[in-house]
Design brief:
The complex is a heterodimer of chains A (365) and B (393). The longest helix of chain A has 18 residues. In chain A, the strands form four sheets. A six-stranded mixed β-sheet of chain A has the order 6-7-8-3-9-10, with helices on both faces. In chain A, strands 11-12-13-19-14 form a five-stranded mixed barrel. With 365 residues, chain A is of the alpha+beta class. Chain A is built from nine helices and 19 strands. Helix content of chain B is 68%, strand content 2%. Chain B contains 15 helices and two strands. A two-stranded antiparallel ribbon of chain B has the order 1-2. Chain B is flat. Classes of the chains: A alpha+beta (365), B mainly alpha (393). At the A-B interface, strand 6 and helix 3 of A face helix 7 and helix 8 of B. Bound molecules: adenosine-5'-triphosphate (ATP) and magnesium ion. Magnesium ion binds next to helix 1 of chain A.
C-alpha cells in the first residue's frame, strides 16, 4: 500500500522568514523520491510539514488526495525517520520496533510476531533483546527503518538517515534502503544534502535552494539538463564559462567569453536571446584531450596548474587565458604522463554535452 | 598526603556523630564519654526512673518522640506525593515556554527556596487561619487549623522547588525528537507521557522523592510555626533540648545513622549487582561481535581490596580498645548500673541532709532586711522638694 503525496503551494514561515516557499510537487505512490539541497535550505521543514509536525503557513499537504490540514502526526499514514534516528534508548530493539503496535493496543504475541518479521527484513534476526546502545550505527539505522515500517505506513519519510555513517556503510545502506523499498513497495521520501546519495537511490529528485524548489525530475535528466546555474553546480561538478549570447542556431546558442566562443545547448524552457548575459557549463568528465581524428565542436586552450589523484579518476586543474579556472577528469586507465604542471594543451568538448543558462548565482558562491 | 586530607575531612564530618553515638551507650544521665559510668542499652529502651522519681525516657518508652516520628512520616509522605508531581509538571512546562518567558518563569519558580523557611511557615498559618475563619465550622475550618495539613502545604511550597530543579536538570538532556518519534508512530499525548517521558524521568522521580522526604523529615524552621499544636520529630527534639539533652537523643541519632548506612549500603549493593549484570551482558555482546583476535584473553576481572578498608580497620581497633577497657574495669551490666545508682542516691541523700540542716526560717525566707525598699526612699532626693510646685495643669 502506497500513497501519493502532493504539496500544493506550500510555504512555511518562521516569523518573517520563509523556511520553505511556494513548494509545488507531486510524489507518486510507490516512488523513491529525494529532496536534495544544501544545509539550511528547508528540507527538514518540508518533511515536518508532510508528517504533520509543522502546519504550513500557506498551501496544503495532500496524501492520497486528502487534505491533511488539522490532522496530527499520529493520525497521518506517514512514518518519519529522524535525522538523529530518535530510537527509544530505554527499550529493547524489539520494543522499539513494536512501539507503534503497542500504542494501538495490539496483543503481546502479535507484537512479537511482527517484530520478528521485521527483524528478519532488516537482517537482525535474534537480536531483538539487545538494547539500542549495543547496536552499531548501521544496525541502529535499520532498526529505525523497521520501527517506522511496523504499522505499514503508506509513506516513509527519511531525514538524512545515513549522514552519520561512514562511507562504506553509507554505500551499503543505500543499496539496502533501495531493496527494502522495493520489497515493501511504499512511497519513500528521502532527504539528503549528498547529491551522490540522491542520484544513486532515487527515481526522481527535487533540488531545493533557499526554501524554493529549483528543479524536479529524473536523476539523469537533472544531471544532464539542469534548469538553473544552482542545479548545474550543486548536482555534480560543473565548470562555468561566463559570457554573452552572440548567436542562436536551433536549440544551440553561441556564447562569447573572454577566452573565446563556444557552442552550447539551450534548455527548452530557458530560451535565450542575443545579447543575454549567460553561463555555459561543461562537466569535468566531458572535457577531453583530443586524439587524432577527434573533431569536437568546441576547443579551449588551457594551462595546467595542478593534478590530483582520485583513484578511478585523475583530476587536472587548469587556468584559461583570462585567469578563469577549469577542472577536467581523465580515467585512470588513460596515459597522461605528457601532461605536467605548466604545460599548455587544447581541450575539446561537444556542444551537446554543454548547457547554457541565463546568468544567476551558482551553488559554490 | 591526599590520604591525610581526606582523613581530616572525614574526621571533621563524622567525628561529632561518632562521639555522640558512643554516648548513647553510657548509662549516665548526660551524654558523655568521660566519666564513663556503665555500658548499657537503657537509652535505647526504657530509659531510667531517677532516684527523685523523674522519668528520663529512653528511645522506646518516649511516646512524645514516637508521636513526633509518626507525624514526621505522615508529613514526609504527604510532601513527597505533592512536591514530586508539582516539581515535574513545573519542569515540563519550562521546556514548553518560549525563550523570552523562560528566564522569568524559571526565576519565579525557584523563588521559594530563597524565602526564609520561617516566613513560609508563618504565612501559611496566617493564610489558612483566614480561610478557616471564612467557613465557620466544618471541614475547611478543621483542616485550616490542622498542623499536619498546614505543614505539608508549607513544606511543599519550597520542597517542590528542589524537585523542580532535579527534573529540570534531567529534562535538559532529554532528546525531544523522541517525543515526536512516538507521536509519529501513532502514540497519543498521554501515551507519549507515560511511555516515553515518565520512564526517562524515573531516576529523577526517585531522587526527587528521596530528597523531598529527607528535606521534609529534617525541616525545623518552617515546621515549628506551621505544626501548631502537633509535634514532629524535629520539634520534639528541639523542645527536649531546651530542657537539657538526654542520651536518648544520642540513641536516636545513632539509630538514624544506622538506618541511613543500611539504606546506603543496600542501595550500593543493588546498584553494583545491576552494574555487574550489565557488564556481563556487554561482555557477551563484545565476544559475540568482535573478531577472535580482538579479545584480550589475558584480561581477568580481578578482586581488589577497597581503600576504605583502612578506615574500617581504624574503627575496629578503637572499638576493641574501648570494649576491653570496659570489660577490664567491669563497667557494664546491671550490677554496675545498680552500684552507680546506689552511689548517686547516697550522694543525693547526703546533699538533701545538708540542705535540711541549713534550712532557713520563714522569716528569713520572706525577704528580711533585703526585701524592703525603704533604703531607696531618698533616691530622688528630698521628697518635699516639689511641694511648692503646683503640678502640671
Ligand atoms: N523552529 C524554527 N524556528 C525558526 N527557524 C527555523 C526553525 N526550524 C528551522 N528554521 C530555519 O529554517 C531553515 C531551514 O531549516 P531546515 O531544518 O529545514 O534545514 P535543512 O534543509 O533540513 O538543513 P540540514 O541539511 O542542515 O538539516 C533554516 O534556516 C533554519 O534556521
Ligand atoms: Mg535537516
Amino acid at each position: 500500500m502506497s500513497a501519493d503525496v502532493e504539496l500544493s503551494d506550500v510555504s512555511v514561515t518562521f516569523g518573517s522568514f520563509y523556511a520553505a516557499k511556494n513548494v509545488n510537487v507531486k510524489v507518486n505512490g510507490g516512488e523513491f523520491f529525494s529532496f536534495l539541497g544544501p544545509s539550511g535550505c528547508g528540507k527538514t521543514t518540508l518533511l515536518r510539514a508532510i508528517s504533520g509536525f509543522q502546519e504550513p503557513s500557506e498551501g496544503k499537504v495532500l496524501i492520497d488526495n486528502k487534505d491533511m490540514s488539522g490532522i496530527g502526526p499520529n493520525k497521518r499514514p506517514t512514518a518519519l525517520i529522524f535525522q538523529n534516528l530518535a530510537l527509544f534508548p530505554l527499550m529493547s530493539v524489539s520494543e522499539n520496533i513494536a512501539f507503534s503496535l503497542e500504542v494501538r493496543g495490539v496483543s503481546k504475541e502479535e507484537r512479537k510476531k511482527r517484530a520478528d518479521e521485521l527483524l528478519e527484513l532488516i537482517a537482525l534476526e535474534g537480536q531483538g533483546d539487545k538494547k539500542v546502545h549495543q547496536l552499531s550505527g548501521g544496525q541502529k539505522q535499520r532498526v529505525a527503518i523497521a520501527r517506522a515500517l511496523a504499522v505499514e505506513p503508506k509513506v516513509l519519510l527519511l531525514d538524512e538517515p545515513l549522514s552519520a555513517l561512514d562511507l562504506k556503510l553509507r554505500q551499503r545502506m543505500r543499496t539496502e534502503l533501495r531493496e527494502i523499498q522495493k520489497r515493501v513497495n511504499i512511497t519513500f521520501i528521502y532527504i539528503t544534502h549528498d547529491q551522490g546519495e540522491a542520484l544513486t537511490m532515487s527515481d526522481r529528485i527535487a533540488v531545493m535552494n533557499e526554501g524554493e524548489l529549483e528543479q524536479i525530475g529524473k536523476c539523469d535528466e537533472v544531471y544532464n539538463n539542469p534548469l538553473t546555474p544552482f542545479v548545474a553546480t550543486f548536482v555534480g561538478e560543473n565548470n562555468p564559462l561566463y559570457g554573452k549570447v552572440t548567436g542562436i542556431e536551433g536549440d544551440k546558442a553561441k556564447i562569447e567569453t573572454a577566452d573565446g566562443q563556444y557552442l552550447a545547448t539551450m534548455n527548452e524552457s530557458k530560451k535565450l536571446n542575443i545579447g543575454d548575459e549567460s553561463i555555459a557549463f561543461v562537466r569535468p568528465e566531458s572535457l577531453f584531450i583530443p586524439r587524432d581524428g577527434d573533431n569536437f565542436d568546441n576547443k579551449i586552450d588551457v594551462n595546467i596548474e595542478s593534478f590530483e589523484f582520485e583513484g578511478n579518476l585523475k583530476n587536472f586543474y587548469a587556468s584559461l587565458k583570462s585567469g578563469a579556472k577549469i577542472k577536467f577528469s581523465v580515467p585512470n586507465a588513460i596515459d597522461t604522463s605528457s601532461i605536467t604542471s605548466g604545460s599548455s594543451i587544447v581541450l575539446g568538448f561537444e556542444s551537446s554535452k554543454s548547457v547554457i543558462l541565463p546568468k544567476a548565482s551558482l551553488a559554490i558562491d | 598526603m591526599m590520604g591525610i586530607y581526606i582523613f581530616i575531612f572525614f574526621a571533621y564530618l563524622f567525628g561529632p556523630l561518632i562521639i555522640m553515638s558512643i554516648t548513647a551507650f553510657n548509662s549516665a544521665e548526660f551524654p558523655s564519654i568521660t566519666p564513663w559510668e556503665c555500658f548499657s542499652f537503657r537509652w535505647f529502651n526504657e530509659g531510667k526512673i531517677a532516684y527523685d522519681g523523674q522519668h528520663l525516657a529512653g528511645l522506646l518508652s518516649d511516646w512524645r518522640l514516637h508521636d513526633g516520628i509518626i507525624s514526621s512520616l505522615i508529613i514526609g509522605a504527604g510532601v513527597v506525593t505533592l512536591s514530586v508531581p508539582i516539581g515535574m509538571a513545573a519542569a515540563i512546562v519550562l521546556t514548553q515556554v518560549r525563550s523570552q518567558l523562560r528566564d522569568i518563569y524559571y526565576s519565579i519558580s525557584i523563588m521559594p527556596v530563597l524565602f526564609p523557611g520561617v516566613i513560609i511557615g508563618i504565612s501559611t498559618v496566617v493564610l489558612w487561619d483566614r480561610i478557616a475563619g471564612l467557613g465557620g465550622e466544618g471541614f475547611i475550618a478543621d483542616i485550616g487549623r490542622n498542623g499536619i495539613f498546614l505543614t505539608i502545604l508549607a513544606q511543599t511550597c519550597f520542597i517542590s522547588t528542589y524537585c523542580f530543579l532535579i527534573f529540570v536538570a534531567r529534562l535538559q538532556r532529554f532528546d525531544q525528537t523522541q517525543e515526536e518519534a512516538a507521536l509519529d508512530l501513532g502514540a497519543s499525548q498521554t501515551q507519549v507521557f507515560f511511555k516515553i517521558l515518565v520512564p526517562y524521568l524515573s531516576p529523577a522521580i526517585a531522587s526527587a522523592a528521596v530528597i523531598a522526604f529527607l528535606f521534609s523529615f529534617e525541616n525545623y524552621n518552617t515546621t515549628v510555626f506551621s505544626i501548631l499544636s502537633d509535634q514532629t520529630l524535629t520539634t520534639v527534639i528541639a523542645s527536649k533540648v531546651r530542657l537539657g539533652i538526654s542520651p536518648a537523643l544520642s540513641a536516636l541519632a545513632l539509630t538514624i545513622i544506622a538506618l541511613t548506612i543500611i539504606a546506603a549500603v543496600t542501595y550500593e549493593v543493588l546498584r553494583r549487582r545491576a552494574e555487574k549484570r550489565y557488564a556481563e551482558s556487554q561482555e557477551k555482546f563484545v565476544k559475540e561481535k568482535a573478531a577472535d583476535n580482538r579479545i584480550n584473553k589475558k584480561y581477568k576481572a580481578g578482586f581488589k581490596i577497597p581503600k576504605g578498608i583502612t578506615a574500617i580497620l581504624l574503627i575496629v581497633v578503637f572499638a576493641t580498645y574501648g570494649a576491653t577497657q570496659i570489660v577490664k574495669n567491669d563497667l557494664y551490666g546491671q550490677s554496675c548500673i545498680d552500684a552507680a545508682d546506689k552511689e548517686k542516691k547516697s550522694k543525693f541523700l547526703e546533699q538533701l541532709q545538708t540542705l535540711e540542716s541549713n534550712e532557713l526560717t520563714d522569716e528569713e525566707l520572706s525577704g528580711g532586711s533585703l526585701g524592703g525598699n525603704q533604703d531607696y526612699g531618698d533616691i530622688f532626693g528630698d521628697p518635699s522638694l516639689f511641694q511648692d510646685f503646683g503640678g502640671f495643669d
